[in-house]
Predict the structure.
Amino acid sequence: MPPESMPLENRSFLQAIPAPWRKALLRLAASWLALLAVFHADWTAMARQWWEISTYNHVLLILPIIGWLVWQRRGELALLTPSCWWPGLLFVAGAAFVWLLGGISGLDLARQAGAVALLGAVVPLLLGPQVMAGLLFPLCYMALLVPFGEELVEVLQTVTAKITVALTHFSGVPAQIDGVFIDTPAGLFEVAEACSGVKFLIAMFAFGALAANVCFVRWRRRLVFMAACIVVPILANGARAWGTIYAAQFVGVQKAAGFDHIVYGWIFFALVLAAVIAGGWRFFDRPLDVPMIDAARIAASPFLSRMATATIAATGALLGLAALIGAVLWWAVTAERLAAPLPAAIDLPEVPGWHRVDYAPTIWWEPRAGGAGHRLLGRYADESGHAVDVFYALYAGQGEGREAGGFGEGALMPSSPWAWQGKGPDFADARSERLLGHGEVERLAVTWYRTGPVTTGSNSRLKLAVIADHLLLRARPTAMLIVSAEEGHHGPRAADAIGRFLAATGSPGRWMDRTAKLR
């Protein structure tokens, strides 16, 4: 009896796979193993974040979910014929370029996104456009393997604080808001990073995307459900923070905070998730007996059929994949080694109308600049009683371990007495932020980055400038300048002191160049 006519339960696993799929799946598995080995550093870093950081613990479920989504489609996929497809090399090139951008800019998020995208990109290359269409949602769902969301923390802190203080006022409790700090009769509350609700939002987004695909057919219902999975957790997190503040007025801050951690960690998320499911249940419109994809429709698509004619030999596809990966690895290694010459020593320059004084902050403040070749920290004062603190760092280049705009670098140091309070007043081409030390001392910090002709306070703008230099294999030094001042309740305002200092120094970019002895 030929294998094709055997009952499924009597056939081996390999015999149960249609013949055209066997070699295709072996090539895919071998390519995935090779990519995991080549980019093991990125996958190891992601796995560590999934396991160790509570914001990303839910990602541990994404891998089995992706496997389940593919398993759901196995019967229909078996009706399609896989083939190597040369336009798939364009997908590989795009994913490799994203990884390269992350590698040459020191942006881990882009590196990790590129590593994940490469696994998805080899699917159309080695299995063809029709199989890609059948696996479109699982391939897109792979994007949730990338640990993203930390970029939303400051925005969510601010939004949560505004929702919380509005509900606090509505409930009759007097409150004053200052950035992410809310002052009430029971005490001062901070909407800290852990209270921003980012991990709640990301997990709900992942669930919403899955449910929208599995439970709905109509796109309008899918979009409404996804919107609910974004809006509801943001509002719910604001309500949770308000509940903590409201309870603290009666039971004290310690008891309210302790109860909040238990409720938020074990009960609150489950209740909100159940409420969203209950709200969408009656609108689920996918019949249970309908397959997740329609192989006959995919095979009959004229557009996909025309695309499928662009075939390539398996050997050519694998060689093309290897050549692209080799090229981006060489480029990234070469760019990583770029280093501009730095002077042997630098010093903070003289400023007209200002003189150097001892640096003696009320609470020690020393920005972090990992990997910088030179660091300077000092205080200037003028005859009118204004005082500013100046931090300057000079880098030979930007890369892994030496990122001026990297996480934890700059004015707000992790595990320090300082907390982010909110955005500060505007200064030209700068990042302005207000910090609070030990809940008592306020500090305004204004940051600029300088590389080549670019002067900016935007980390994104700095990254783009660094990427352009590294793509052209051009070595340029990068400088970071932070001008800061403590907020005096009875003396000069911090913004006024910084404004006067900047007026005396002139252009921050030129002043940074003079300090680096580039002019």
Observations:
- The mean pLDDT is 89.
